[in-house]
Amino acid sequence: MDPVLLVVIIVGLLLVGGAGAFFLRSGRDHVPTLDPTTTDAADKAIDANAGPEAAVAVETEPSVSVEEDEPIVEAAPEPATFRGRLGKARSAMSGYLASVVGRGDANAETWEELEEALVRADVGVGPTMEILEAVRARADADKVTDGRAIIDLVKAELKDRLGGRDISLAEGGDPSVWLFVGVNGVGKTTTIGKIATREVAEGRNIVLAAGDTFRAAAAEQLTMWADRSGASVIRGGEGADPSSVIFDAVEHAAANDADVVLADTAGRLHTKTNLMNELSKVRRVAEKGAGTVTETLLVIDATTGQNGLIQAREFTQAADLTGVVLTKLDGSAKGGIVVAVQAELGIPVKLVGLGEGAHDLIEFDADEFVDALFE
């Protein structure tokens, strides 16, 4: 065969083979591919003898289920505790107490530092001297010389002086009337709202009397608390006679079988005799109808310290106080006012405020209070 012809034949065959390979490769590149997850799902459905329809169901089933209108459950508020809320008062005493413990055996400086600690906590000079005198006598009798043991004796003395008192809120009227008195800004209206919240939650029928008619926002504030707590409220016009508002509230409570009337009063300056006389009138009028005043509670701002004791003396003369509500104790370094009030006036602290929440007004517990103050 002619060599030239042979070369032409070989080149032709190579060209034809290359073209075929090109078209074959292009065909493979354009074959549609399946999503591997879809293929796996379909394979599993078919493998389970579910048929092709089941395979489609697996492909279209949403991967995340959504619960509609799921209720939101709010966590219950943590209860207020003395230990958790008396940090400022504890800090005011801690340096002196640490020095007493670090010294070991007691000496003259030990008693000076204990005195300073109690005075700084606003126990008052008179009560402080009485407490330390009693503790010193006990330490001598029992031959106690260790600083830490002497601090324990101070704590025991305070618990004895503060404890053993009836701190319940008295009833006995039909309805019972609880009057709340105190100067402006101590938290009377808020205290009433918190007590109403607690009493209604316990199933009581409560009426609020907006007797602070001289402060424009007082009635509105009390109405807000009534709405929140489920109590009812009786209010008068701005500048109305406080006694008449409280009288109407007592009559309303009697007609509606209410258990207790919580009566707000104007925030009176304890230095104004005419206003204190008006407070005495409020009490008299509150008992003219069906009600009986079973509690007259003085509300004191703990941050005022010894000034709160002056208020207590004046209000006792005007209103025959039955107990004290000490507010803002969590924000004060003057927690010792509890000791001063009970020591000098014989009036028990029944409730203390340890925060802004509706459930942060709690019954006073002498043991927990003293322990939190020292540790």
Characterize the structure shown.
It is a single chain. The chain is α/β, with parallel strands linked by helices. Among the domains are: 82-162, SRP54, nucleotide-binding domain (Four Helix Bundle (Hemerythrin (Met), subunit A)); 176-321, Rossmann fold, CATH 3.40.50. It has 15 helices and eight strands. The chain has an eight-stranded mixed β-sheet with strand order 3-2-4-1-5-6-7-8, with helices on both faces. Strand 6, helix 14 (337-345) and strand 7 (349-353) form a beta-alpha-beta unit. Helix 5 runs antiparallel to helix 6 (108-120) and helix 11 (242-255) runs parallel beside helix 12 (273-286). The longest helix has 27 residues, at 3-29. It is elongated, with a radius of gyration of 39 Å.
